[in-house]
Amino acid sequence: MKHCRHLFIALVLSFSNTAFSAGETPLKIEVIASDLGVPWGMALMPDNKLLLTQRHGELTLVDLKSKESHNISGLPAVRAQRQGGLFDVVLSPDFKTTSWIYFSYAKNVDGQGATTLARAKLNNNTLTDWQDLLISQSRTKKDYHYGGRIAFDNNHHVFLSVGERGIRSNAQNRLNHAGSILRLNLDGSPAEDNPFIDDANSLPEIWSYGHRNPQGLFFNHATGLLWESEHGPRGGDEINLIKAGKNYGWPVISYGKEYNSPRAVGEGTERADIEAPIKVYIPSIATSSIIQYSGKVFPVWKNNLFVGALKAQHLNRIVLDKDNHASGEFRHFSSVQARIRNIVESPEGWLYLATDQGEILLIKP
User: Fold this and answer.
1) What is the mean pLDDT of residues 83-101?
2) Does 314 participate in catalysis according to the annotation?
3) Residues 6 or more apart from 152 whose CB is under 8 A from it?
4) Model confidence, pTM
């Protein structure tokens, strides 16, 4: 079955150039790893290796040259139920001097799951010095809408996305972390210039709120902009430009509908005090990871957003205008027939994709 799947991908991708616009660079796509669980997060290491999380609670290191892989020990207990599990992995911006690697995962707290930010160091094939930096105040009995994406800014801060954990009202309640983007110092403490740092009706870690299930988070180090992708209900997936202190609407404002009726969620699709998305998907594509392409090897893609699609099974590319509004959309690799969970860009400008079928794919010229 493994070899049949690889042959299928090769045949599909031999015709893939027809799916791209004129002037785009022809592609070569390579299967780096397969037969994994759900590879949720990926971090490119400086020694030509790829560190990846699997949602069921395994951490794997892949040699990108030999394609050999082995599991890393030292993880804590992970609540791997339904959408819960081991989530993102990102190298600290000061990794070369501190060796810190940041993780997010669902932690079991009194029988309930809490989105948690942690860090550790990798010594040979074992994690050491594990630290839970923030066990978010988000736990519920429901094992979905965890969020869990990590991004770093240019000023030694780390962002963490937290879903509303299946309780809609959480997203408008700033006395919990659920339904929010958090901004922390690298040690997990709240950043002192956060927008609600002195608000008695808010937790100090909150950077923005009104989010349903933020599955993608990307900080552009050149522009200083923070991009987010999140799941809507039945329709209404969103791409948002995240700004300090802003309300992104859920569940007061939504472009989606209830699952059990044709009735729209909320009171409408816009309100003056709520930040509007730059892109909405109707019907939903089930957005996952998001990046903004900065490489040179695919010049047509420069500054385009890329978002993985789970339900719609493709890589979604969004062209932006000068005001950072979506001006065009392209859907790539739908013939591969895989839920695209994560996407990262390498220093060379190549793309690595992780699929829910347990594959890591490399896209390069």
Assistant:
1) 98
2) no
3) 90, 92, 93, 158, 159, 219
4) 0.94
